[in-house]
Give the backbone structure.
Amino acid sequence: MAGIKVRSGAELQNEIQNCLAEANGRTFDALKAAVDKTAKQTVEQTKQKSPARTGVYQKNWAAKADEASESRGIYGKTVYNKKKPQLTHLLQYGHEVTGYLAGKGRNKTRAFDHIQSDDVTEQMLTKNLEEELDKG
């Protein structure tokens, strides 16, 4: 507001609202950039850590925007596997087996810890958001 002459209370109110709207826009842009960067980093880390027997599961990690949230002024992304979403839980935690393998004394498959925890993702987002806010 430096250099702006305000003649009335209404002008002051309008000027304050304009400044707040501008700050809100810059903050939302920084948040959006931080979320995008975090999603991209999460996808890359998950691809690197994923089991790669055939490579299909490993290659098909992606991030998509949560469109329903964006219409309410909230921005987020979901990291998911495009081709084999049903395998994520089974591979991350292992699962009980039946049939041939169970007869051989194996009751559970081994777990592949390849999906990072929410705490790690939150730390990455916080770091990325701080960097984006420092830029602008």
In short: The first strand starts at residue 61 and ends at 65. DSSP finds six helices and two strands in the chain. The two ends are 18 Å apart (CA to CA). The chain has a mean pLDDT of 86.
